[in-house]
Structure formats: C-alpha cells, structure tokens
Amino acid sequence: MSVSKKRVFVQKLAVVVLSAGVVVSLTGCANGPFDLSACDPIFTSGSNSALVSADGKLSADPEAEFPTPLIADRVESQTVVAGDGEQVGHGDVATLQITIYNGETGEQLISTGHDTAGLRVPVVEREPRFGEIAQCATVGSRIVTVGTAGEILGADNIAQNQLPVTETDTIVMVSDIETRYPGKATGANQVPPAGLPAVVLAPNGQPGFTFPGTDAPTELKIATLKVGSGQTVAEGDLAVMHVSGIEWDADATFTNSWEEAGVPGTYLAQSSETSEKGLPPGLAEALIGQKVGSQVLVVLPPAVGFAPGTEPNGVTSGSTLVFVFDILGIQEQ
What total number of domains does the chain contain? Predict the structure, then answer.
C-alpha cells in the first residue's frame, strides 16, 4: 500500500449542483422542526475515514493523503476539523468547498476549485448527498467522507454529468463548510393587507398563492409577511433569497427556487436602471431596506417591472407579476 495525493484530472464540481458564486436572474420535501441539541449525523466514522488526513488550509486545497488502494463497502464520514460557527440542521442550506479523490489511486478527480464561493446545497435527503453529510456539523468544519461514488454522488448524477468515476468506485471526499443559511424566512409573522394575493406556506417554506378575484393593481405593492431581525439589505448587497414568481391570476409559477433546484439564488440588490445585473426597479425598491429573515410579497406592475424583451421565460409581456422573497442572508463580496 502507498500513500498518494496525485492530481491528474480535476473537474469542476459545479456541474453537480448549483454554484453559489453566480448572481442569478429571475429567468427561469417538507421540513419539520429540527432539534439541533439532539443532532445525530447521518453517517458515522469508521476505519476507512480514519485513514484520511487533510492538512491543507480550510477552503483551499485540502491536500488529502490516504493509503491506496482504499476500498469501501459503506459510507463513513467524520469531522477532522471542528468549526466554531453555526450548526447546520436538516432543512438548512449550506455552502461547501468540496474535493473528491479516487480511492484506488489517490488522484484528485473533482473540485469546486476553492477560488470562488462554494456549492450551495440543501440539507435534505437527496443525491448527491452533500447536504446530508454536512448535517449536524458547524460552519468552519472540515469533513472527510469515504464511500462508493454511487452512494455519495448518485448514479444519475454520474451519468448525466459524465463524471470521471463509476458507481462502484471508492471515492474520498473532503468537505469544508463555509456558510449556513436557514432554508426559509424565520421572521415574525405579520397580518397581511387586504386586496393582495393570500400566501399559504408548506412546511419547508414554499409558498402557494390564492388571488382575490379582482383586477391586478396598477401600482407597486409591497407587503412584509415576516419581519426578520438580521442584517439590513443595502443597495449593492448580494442577497441570498428563495423566490417564487407567478403572473397575476395564473395557475402556476414561472419561477420557484424551492422546486427548480432546492437552493436559494444570489441577487444583486440594485435597480437594473443603474446595473445590468440588477433587479427590476420595483423589486429593488421592495427589497432594499428589508432585514434578513424577512419574507416579502411584491406585486410588480409592468411600469416598474422588466423592460420589454427581458421578461423571464414563461412571462407574458406587459403582465403584472407577483413574487414572494425569503431573504436568508447576505453573501460576502
């Protein structure tokens, strides 16, 4: 057996799940209460995970070393560096830097690159199992995981993204937890104003809409449905938000981050009148000045909405749109 840390083929991991480092546009599982004090990790340590060292700097190349070949018959995971940040619970969203090695040869196969914000993943039961592996750990931690690629990444992800492994290959994965966001707005509930769409929430925070049976307002309407107590969103901030959008009186949403990827997007809190990456003027007005933890309902008439020809996919030009935003955090720039 030999100790190896070869780096022959490195593939960016952003093909597997959405990257948190990109400002997105508006184009286009139920989670109950979670007791962090009684948190039990999904995967436990074992003899294989104990063989891996990863002494590189956090959120940089972990420089993992382990005896080869390393062959796994189950998933083992252990924390090798314990961070002092917030604990990640079921239903949260975590941002991770991830590096994956071939267990047989020690070659580094896949990496987030560590040069931008990491992968933003929901901490729920799904493939790839990055979120489940992070459950119960704290921000600033490093986790080593050993198992087959099929069990950790999922057969569908391996095939669809043409990853350089087979389902039965043993892989070694090093995950650094950079940030934690709640999976939904956590602010204090407010009495919604009359005349606007009613919003009903699923346990995981996903909104549903009921319209009042009246014509759409012709002026911008803003209602804070939950008032958060976190940092105030300032102009130019990168706000991390879940968003659901629907045309007035429509039967289905045209954008819904809960369903589309399960992870919130990053939005520049600035008007498109002053930045091409900004939001329509009415949305920028609605969000700037709100606090993290808030949920905001916005009725967006076309006069302060998307410029003609820039509407999201599935949106009728000139229509009035309704959005619900859950403001989960502000991303560092």
Answer: 2
